[in-house]
């Protein structure tokens, strides 16, 4: 499926803005993960230690796991608070609100795109059905056509 030009242009603009703002600086400077190391809930919980640096991506991971495992965020935030990060919930709620806002905007764009495309698709399907019906009728013999008409009249 092709991405609509306006949405593609918006994605490009957002990427360019992120790049210019420095948001992407150092994106590959973190510690490399071993190929066999799993990036799951348990490794994330184990990584929450007093000396850990917290990034926006940490809270995005917590949010992602919360979406698939309700209650995960509460456990992770409680652990962070115990470890001394008194603003963990505030950071998490900020990340969650940003995600929700972007998610809602994406859903709105998808609904608009679907709404704009939907009627045309329905009309195309109706035209196709009519064409196929006509082709089927053309292939019928006179006796088949009479039987078909009798059946139609009987249905009414």
Structure, explained:
With 156 residues, this protein is an all-alpha fold. The protein has helices spanning 5-21, 41-47, 56-68, 72-82, 88-139, 142-155. Helix 3 crosses helix 5. The longest helix has 52 residues, at 88-139. It starts with a helix and ends with a helix. The model has no long low-confidence stretch (mean pLDDT 86).
Largest sheet: none
Average pLDDT works out at 86
Rough shape?
Answer: elongated
Rounded to an integer in angstroms, the radius of gyration calculated over CA atoms is 28 Å
N→C terminal distance:
42 Å
Counted beta strands: 0
Summarize the structure.
The chain is built from six helices and no strands. With 156 residues, it is mainly alpha-helical.
Keywords:
156 residues; mainly alpha
How are the secondary structure elements laid out?
Blueprint (H helix, E strand, L loop, with lengths): L4 H17 L19 H7 L8 H13 L3 H11 L5 H52 L2 H14 L1
Helix pairs in contact: 3-5
